[in-house]
Amino acid sequence: MGAAALPFVVLCALVSAQWPPLMAFDAAVADTLYERVHPDPALAHGLEIWTEVFGTWSMRIVSLLTAGWLLLRRQFSTAVWAGAAVFLANLFGLIVKLTVDRARPEFADPITEGVGPSFPSGHALMAATGMGILLFAALPLLRGAWRHVGWTLAVGAAMSTALSRPMLGVHYVTDIVAGLSLGVFALAATMLLWTYLPPIARRWDRPARRR
């Protein structure tokens, strides 16, 4: 849990202080990515589709549907964990966005438009949280090499969604690193609480079947 919190806390402090070396790095990367993507409409369109499919609301819906599926399988405590993780991730993200209030990258001819403060990236935050919940729910049903496939798909989807944001010119690199870190922290923090749930919260759980 500390490993996820540390990069987020450090970046939050440096961005809030507008540390010049970090600001210069972010600006340079943002300009480089913009110059690569802006002249290529097909790439930009593909990135926009990807970022919508795995967008903030998509991941919220996936997370809540996963929690509902867990309830149907009588995995009540795990469903509570999933709901708590989504709630805390969104709460943490909103508080930090309003507190830091970082402006998004600005370009004369933007590729697409972003809404609200830039730090941390909500897409990166919810991609990490949503894919983490989906992976944790699916792991008991996977065996052998399929577990590695599950991990690869979940991590790949979260990372690629996060990377699409600076490529579209609506976030800085530090925004997505902070978002991913905060998402992992929300998962880990709620997981820690989940392991200490009172026995009554697990009384009606039914062990997930392995296939």
What can you tell me about this protein's structure?
- The chain is mainly alpha-helical.
- Helix content is 73%, strand content 0%.
- The protein contains 9 helices and no strands.
- The longest helix has 25 residues, at 76-100.
- 37% of the residues are buried.
- The mean pLDDT is 88.
Unreliable sequence segments: none
Measured by DSSP, the beta-strand proportion falls in under 5%
Number of strands: 0
Fraction of helical residues? over 70%
- CATH class (first level) name: Mainly Alpha
Mean pLDDT: 88
Largest pleated sheet:
none
**Discrete helix count:** 9
Number of domain units: 1
General form: globular
Pick out its properties.
211 residues; mainly alpha; Vanadium-containing Chloroperoxidase, domain 1; 9 helices
Summarize the structure.
The protein has 9 helices and no strands. The chain is mostly helical and 211 residues long.
Question: What is the secondary structure topology, with strand pairs?
Answer:
Layout: H1 2-16, H2 20-37, H3 41-53, H4 56-72, H5 76-100, H6 122-138, H7 145-167, H8 173-195, H9 199-202
Helix pairs in contact: 1-8, 3-7, 4-5, 4-6, 5-6, 5-8, 6-7, 6-8, 7-8
InterPro entries: PAP2/HPO, PAP2/HPO_sf
Domain Phosphatidic acid phosphatase type 2/haloperoxidase: 79-191
Transmembrane segments: 54-72, 79-100, 120-142, 149-170, 176-197
